[in-house]
Fold this sequence. Notes:
586 residues, disordered C terminus, alpha+beta
Amino acid sequence: EDDLLTNKLQFAFKDGQSRVGRSPAEGEAGETPEVALAGLGIHREHAVVTSAGGCCGLSSVSEEAAAATCVNGSSVPKEGVTLIHGDRVAFGQSIFVFINPAEGTAAELLASGKVSYATARKELNENVGGMPSEEELNASRLMAEDLERRAREAEEAKSRAQAEAEEMLRQREEEFQKQMEQRQQDWERELQEREAAQANDQAVAAEQAQSHAHELEKLQREFQERQQRIEEAARQRIEELERQSRKAAAEEEDHRQMELNMQKLEEQLMVAMPLVKEANLIAAELHRPHRLETKMHCELSDRARGTVNVTASVSQDNVHLFEWSLETLENRVFMMRDLLQRCEEEGLGVMDSLTPEGDPLWDPVNVERLIGVAQVLLEGLLLQVENHVDARILSTEGHQAGTLRVEVSPVAKDGSLGIPDCDVVDEPEQLLGTRMATQVHIVRASGLPETLANNVRVEYSYFIDEKAHQVPPAPGHNCNPIFDHKHNFVQDPVTSRFLEYLQSKLVFRVYGCDSSAQAIADEQAALRSEAEAIAMPQVWHAPEAHMAEPEQVLASPEQYEHPEQQQERQQPLSQLLAQAWASQPQ
């Protein structure tokens, strides 16, 4: 059960059969097995090791023991399994390694690195499920390398395209300059010839000069238009390459964040899964109806990728009560270990004196729970168009839990919904410095789960508002509640940060109450009120015959109390609360 015990406990198997199990308690009938173990998951008669002809075989005594017995991370079949040198054998929470002296010693096997406590524990946990395989990690690393290579290629292509555009522009300029110089020379030569031939015809010379000036102006216009087209094409090409580069960089960052989240998730599962298993074993030993289950919650936000957190869900009779974080789970498991040790030393009667504050499996019941999260894109506001959508409500487990009807509309200057065509801008940057009004209309929800469709409410956060906006709850039980809640937001003036926000999503969180959990919470409150009522002093009134004398009327109330009530009144409040709590069905 501990890395510090590695190679400290050694058992040798004799010829024939060797029993593996838990030693009988004091006063309990039965013989001590040859391999006596202790700890969670160890049965009285757990397994049998048969040694014959230099070989050892392992078989489980019962189906319950087989569920708590693994060889190399796999369960032991009914027909048993033959052990070979270096096999990792797990009984409950204890892990051993099988050594064949003919093939080597335990020290040599551990020194070679082929077997260690960490790898054996990970192998056992991977058999439960939830851990990414080595192939998936290698594929993830190859994907990251491919994204990095694509980003480099995009940057190189951008540099080459820019250089080609500059070279093309330079060649066109040189070509045009040569044409201009040649035309100028031809014109000057022709002009000289005409002046020499027609020295007296000034009108013809002036006409020729004007014709050449018009032609020169035409060439200049053509050159400028051609140059503008080339520059526009080069600019569009550079912008396209920059978009590709940003997209590749964003994909690489997204993939890197995913790897970090997967690593964090793996670490949390490595901590949570053994603790949840141990807590369930202790709860079964204490005859408690509570059961724990590992939950992975995906927290959605306006970012491209959410985060995944691991919690422990606590339920009673298939009714969800509350959830524990990893820190709370570790603390409660420590308390459960202490309580189990007390019960082993003093008996299960210790459970009758537990108070809610001292019970490791007690917490206030979470009646209201998060049904799910719905997201609505805000990019339509950049184009000044309305966005009416039935957004899917996704639970923290990633399943659809209904739909939420949301209408996000820009508001015109006169207060009406929608922007007139004359006020629509061509580019979002033209909105900078202006006033923008937006209406968020939460119409209704539909298809909500039956168990949580009670007093449903919605909340959401808009831009940089510190507090979340609350939508009044729909009272009673309704799987299709109608909210019809409208709220207008005004941004004056529009800033670049606000335009960036409109490229994200508006996140709505839908909450509901669990009726079964509410019943359990009401029952706990009634028990606590009953315990407090017991703690209040109660007066035992004397018969009317004894009330005739004034001296008796003015006497102390204690003399009229029943003797049992006097003894009960003198008990401390904590003891009375413990008695009331112990009366609750376990």
